[in-house]
Amino acid sequence: MQKFFQCLLVAVFLVTAKLGIAKSEPFPTKPIQVIIASTPGSASDVITRFLGKEVSKQLGQPIVVVSKPSASGTIAADYSRRAPADGHTLFFGSNTSMAANVHLVKNLSYDPLRDFEPIAQVSINPLVLVVRSDLPIKSVAELVAYAKARPGQMNYGVGNSGALVSSKLLQSITGISAQEITFKGASQAMLELVAGRLDFMITDPLVVDPFIRQGAVRPLAVTSSVRLPSMSEVPTMVEAGVPGYDYASWLGYYAPRGTPKEVVEKLNAAFVKAVQSDEGKEFFNRMGMIARSSTPQALTEFNKGQIASWERWVKVSGLQPQ
Questions:
Q1: What is the DSSP string of 105-162?
Q2: Superfamily classification of domain 128-231
Q3: Domain 24-124+249-317, what architecture?
Q4: pLDDT value for 203
Q5: Which residue, of 171, 266, 288, 305, has the greatest Cβ tally within 10 A?
Q6: Distance between CA atoms of 136 and 85, rounded to whole angstroms?
Q7: What percent of the chain has pLDDT over 70?
Q8: Dmax over Cα atoms in the chain, in whole Å?
């Protein structure tokens, strides 16, 4: 019997020692998966692969992009929240998946605040208000005056929910009235604007930049509270005389709820360094975005504010939960 207990104690010691070694093994111990809600080759894919090179150097493990596309990002978000909370699976969230869906998706299968640990924000993505170049409009004030002199006669294109919300917000604040024309995508709407069948629209910088350079459309303002570095001469909506206007999409990385604090902090440091590097800032400029890193705590508060803002924007735009 004594020999049995001795053997048992030895076994317990060996198991305990093995667990202790595993527990002390530094993160990460294997490749880190980043779940994106879009297809390969999308902006989320390109951004994650770019940042992943620097993050991999710092952490010593590769970043692997896994695509789980769906219209509103729900499939990717739900998959990510169910992953082991060890930092080896991250979710690339956006204003759609982590804020708008709270108000636009019925029976949402996840809670952006309760089910995730924020890692770091990486960008804010303003839109640009543009008009046809043949219209006698060179500022937002002139657009407002022109539209008010022709109530309901001007029209604008909408290719996605961001364009819809930002356009409705502009009308709500300025009091103008214009006809909404809906398209399947921003690129299609832009072609209609260039062809002269639309008067103005609010759209993504990458979509509109070639047409601005050609002189086919004229930029009046960006929708964010800060100017876009790649279009630094274009004022913000507030600078252009639209008080209280602030709309932009955004992107950030999240881990499943329960991920250890030290892992979250290590991931945050790696992503912040990648975003704030000279190469990172230049990369986001080329993407028509603004590099914007954060602490996990700052992303939490930002996320809460965005959920509250989307409640207001959904009401203003007349969007209905689906």
A1: STT-SS-TTTSEEEEEEEEEEE-EEEEETTSS--SHHHHHHHHHTSTTT-EEEE-SHH
A2: Periplasmic binding protein-like II (3.40.190.10)
A3: 3-Layer(aba) Sandwich (3.40)
A4: 93
A5: 288
A6: 57
A7: 93
A8: 99
